[in-house]
Amino acid sequence: MSRWKCILCGYVYDSEKGEPDEGIEPGIKFEDLPDSYKCPMCSASKDMFKEIP
C-alpha cells in the first residue's frame, strides 16, 4: 500500500487505513481518490501531496 504526505501541513494519507471518518474505506489507493479530494487537516488540494516510502 502507498502513503502520501501533504507538503503543506505534513498530514499522511495511508491507503491501508483510508479515512473512515471522511467516507474513504481502507484499501483505497491515493491515485483512485477523486480529483476533488482535499487534505482533511488543511484543505490542500490533491496535487499538494507527494508519495513517500
Which helices and strands, and how do they pair?
Blueprint: E1 3-6, E2 12-14, E3 49-52
Antiparallel strand pairs: 1-2, 1-3
Alpha-beta content class: mainly beta
Roughly what is the average pLDDT, rounded to an integer?
96
Spatial gap, N to C terminus: 10 Å
Strand order of the largest sheet: 2-1-3
- Mind summarizing the main beta sheet? 3 strands, antiparallel
Globally, the shape reads globular
Number of helices: 0
Estimate the helix proportion, in percent: under 10%
Task: Write the H/E string, N to C.
Answer: EEE
Give the low-pLDDT segments. Answer: none
Radius of gyration: 10 Å
Q: Count the strands?
A: 3
- Proportion of β residues? 15-25%
Describe this structure in words.
The protein is built from no helices and 3 strands. The chain is mainly beta and 53 residues long. The protein has a 3-stranded antiparallel sheet with strand order 2-1-3, with no helix packed on it. It is globular, with a radius of gyration of 10 Å.
